[in-house]
Write a structure and sequence with these properties.
154 residues, 5 helices, elongated, 82% helix
């Protein structure tokens, strides 16, 4: 159980750290340039998606989806709350200055990027036949084929 909490915390912290780095880069490097800020934000979402794609690919090999999907969803939810509410405070901005529309847009883009990352990772894993379920079915088929056929007695 301790390992699950550690993985949850590390994932949430990593996703939040990517956002903080992007906010600091925008604040220090591109103050006032909307086009550059949009590019940095896009890069941030791509990095977050890539992190989750690699994670889904790696965890999907060893564990069933039901085991790791809840951990990923909880970590993404925690990182989302930190990103939307705490992230702006770290660079000296008010999280609700843009209104509810801005908060919902940020949350929607974040959820879109994270969902896309998890889906790309897991669907790639499934397409390669290396996911947990495919491996279990392959192992089952091999053991069934290895057993000799039992003759029927009458």
């Amino acid at each position: 159980m301790k390992d699950r909490w550690r993985a949850f915390g590390v994932l949430a912290a990593a996703l939040f750290a990517v956002n903080v780095v992007a906010r600091v880069v925008i604040r220090l490097g591109f103050d006032g340039a909307d086009t550059a800020a949009d590019r940095v934000s896009l890069a941030m979402f791509l990095v977050i998606g890539a992190i989750l794609a690699v994670l889904a690919f790696r965890w999907g090999q060893d564990r069933p989806v039901a085991h790791w999907a809840g951990d990923v969803a909880a970590a993404v939810g925690t990182a989302l709350l930190l990103t939307v509410l705490v992230g702006p405070l770290l660079v000296g901005q008010n999280p609700v200055a843009g209104g509810a529309d801005t908060l919902l847009a940020q949350a929607g883009l974040y959820l879109l990027a994270t969902t896309a990352g998890v889906l790309v990772g897991y669907l790639t894993l499934t397409a390669l036949g290396r996911d947990h379920r495919s491996r279990m079915l392959k192992r089952y088929a091999e053991t069934k084929a290895a057993k000799p056929h039992r003759p029927v007695r009458r």
